[in-house]
Amino acid sequence: MSSTYLYGAHVRANGIRQHYLRYGGEASATRQPLVLIPGITSPAVTWGFVAERLGRHFDTYVLDVRGRGLSASGPELAYDTDTCADDVSAFIEALGLENVILAGHSMGARFALRAMTRGAAGIDKLVLIDPPVSGPGRREYPSKLPWYVDSIRDCIQGADLDTMRRYCPTWSEEQLRLRAEWLHTCYEPAIVQAFEEFHSVDIHQDLPGVSVPTLLMCAGKGGVIQEQDRAEVRDLLPSIRITTADQAGHMIPWDDYEGFFAAFEDFLGTEL
């Protein structure tokens, strides 16, 4: 099957340079747009294997979150949850996208949710993929900060496959090579702030304000979202649909590629 990759590009939105990758093939302009916001240390290119398949059905955009990949980075920028959420809204507006499926994984899901309650326009559906549900007075996020920081520092120095395999022992060689190539672009202060805000910013308050159809996809083996979390989320947003990729850890499509797409069920209106 031919590639659905179209191009990478930059747009100025929310006062910064935002880089993105677009997938969808020749028919992309006629398809519903889908904007994907990756997690804390995942530049857009690392989601390419997912976007290729989404691009068969949707005009797909994968964003480099500020401080990652080829988007603006550095000490002069803010990296708080609200600012990054506003980046998402501004990105969609700058490209003139309408009727958007907004999807985010992990940190990206938190930014997508916060964008909704900060006025993101033109959103048709919301997909939250295993977002951290930690926050003030809540259970800690299961991953630890040194895992992120140490791996970034190793990649800045130049990490080989054996080094990367210590951090991601179940990943394929191709996945490890891509992570080793791009992880150095993750700006450490941005990653530290995002991780700290997993614990200091409560996104549960945003759920009652969501008015579009919403899917929460949970990793069956991730330990991020537990049964009591599902119950609380459903109480806050009774209309939400909750599914599970039973065989996957937090990095769902890396662990169970087919299970990831199956967990969308019919929410997107097409069989992926």
From TrEMBL:
Signal peptide bounds: none
Pfam hit, one: Abhydrolase_6
Record has Hydrolase as a keyword: yes
Keyword Hydrolase belongs to the record: yes
Gene Ontology molecular-function annotations: hydrolase activity
Matching SUPFAM superfamilies: alpha/beta-Hydrolases
Domain of life: Bacteria
Domain AB hydrolase-1: 34-262
This protein's UniProt keywords: Hydrolase
InterPro entries according to UniProt: AB_hydrolase_1, AB_hydrolase_fold, Carboxylesterase_BioH
The name this protein goes by in its record: Alpha/beta hydrolase
